[in-house]
Amino acid sequence: MTDKPEIPVGNPMAEAKVEKLRRAVFKPRKIPKVPALRGNSYRLNLGTDKDGKAVEQRVGSDKEFAEVFRKAWNAAIERTDGTAILTELSELARLDVRKALLLLKDYSSIELADCVQFYINHALPESGIITVKNGVERYMEIQKEKNLGEVSTDEKGATYKTYIKPFKDHFGDKLHLIQLTPEKATAYLNKRSGNKKNWSAGHWNHHRNRLIALWNTLAKRKYCSAALNPFEDVVALSTRGETGGQSKMVTQHANVKKFFRWLEKECEKFPSKYPELALSVVGWFCGIRVEEIGRVGWEDLDRKAEQGGDSERKDFTGWEITVWANKEKTGTTKINPVPENAKEWLKLCRKHWKNEAITKACTNCSFAADDHPQRMKKLRGKFNKETGIKLPQNTARHSFASHHLALWGDAKLTAERLGHKGDASTLNQWYRAGMKPSYAEKYFKIIPEVAEKRLTKEAKANADAEDKASYEDALMRSHGAAPIRDEDGKWHPVTLDDFDGLDK
């Protein structure tokens, strides 16, 4: 007597059962062959669930029945294969595909399937689409589940009334949580703060951080995507003016990235702007003074810096840029490392440096054109006009200082990179601003879009190669069966020890 499923294969009800199983599997796979009997049943690997765990179906001890089930399963997958669907598209669907492809025409490395997958990953949360109001309610429930104190869980307390409830009341049921963008998040805080007139910088940042935490909590419960936290891209304000130091605006990584991506596009349209890009790179990411940048050229860039001496510093990268004593404000020679992200930008600039438009504008072959202060002022004005983002004068050096200090946690090292003599007092008085290390990491990972696409492609190719090698290694060590992938994505050989009762 066998333990076949109640519904026999080969009739409409059987097909319906197979289709129901297929829909229950997140990533279905074809079954190449019926595996060896394990115990008293054949166990067919149908694919994986949403968590990447293998989904098995027991079909009894009748091998003929197992084979019929296998064929029915594979046929169901073939019917829903994306390649087969293409031939059955309606005219309306074809127009939709063409529209999507037109949107992607300037992004040759991105495939339509990648966009769909990104949408599935980030815009279709596993726990369901909920409104902002429902999200806040669920957040408070989660806080209580954590057994936190009344400060975090009491809806009658000041924390909830000050930070959480206004957010819920503003958006309510009018907006789904996943529809909240950085622009809408910024607009909300601007309205709450009276366009920053009624709040201190610290109060603004506290509101922002509370809502970052709320979003991340909901992301952990699969109501939204942690990678698309809209409040992460809301600019944090410098609090230096509130603590007795001179107020200096430090531009956050999100706006710095927007500036460089915008400048990258400007250079593509107007190659004569590559000098501005080069000087921006050494200012924002290497900490070189504005007055020094115009006198630093390619000859001052060492791309084969020797190990030893300054290489023992934490931020050494193998590339160095030298500001010689006659060019340095303090009268001493300064050697600064070039961060990895700055290397990518300078490689891009160097690639286009022989352009005739650049050679006419840059007679001394420095990073900057001869009239670079005026050109940079004009460039910041254009960026402000097109994006609404204002970049204060000298913000590059102040932003570098704050992010470098947050990344390395060494005030003396940061002071040296800035060319400050003596201790770190000048750094603390004029440049230091509160910054999270995670933000600093993002700041020093800002690279050209073309480099990002290249590195993403290389990373995928390397991952695929490693996966293939792991599979082939596991296959060689398997005893006549296909390797099995575990929940962590690692391949394991299938040996005789994996089969129960085979030799009984």
Structural description of this entry:
It is built from 21 helices and 8 strands. With 504 residues, it is mainly alpha-helical. The chain has a 3-stranded antiparallel beta sheet with strand order 1-2-3. Strands 4-5-6 form a 3-stranded antiparallel beta sheet, with no helix packed on it. Strands 7-8 form a two-stranded antiparallel sheet. β7 (484-485) and β8 (491-492) form a beta hairpin. Mean pLDDT is 78; it is low at 1-11, 82-88 and 241-247.
Topology diagram in text:
Layout: H1 12-24, E1 27-28, E2 43-48, E3 54-58, H2 63-79, H3 82-85, H4 91-103, H5 112-123, H6 132-145, H7 150-153, H8 158-171, H9 182-192, H10 201-220, H11 253-269, H12 274-284, H13 290-293, E4 301-302, E5 320-323, E6 334-337, H14 340-351, H15 356-361, H16 372-387, H17 395-408, H18 411-418, H19 425-431, H20 437-443, H21 449-476, E7 484-485, E8 491-492
Antiparallel strand pairs: 1-2, 2-3, 4-5, 5-6, 7-8
Helix pairs in contact: 1-2, 6-8, 11-20, 12-14, 17-18, 17-20
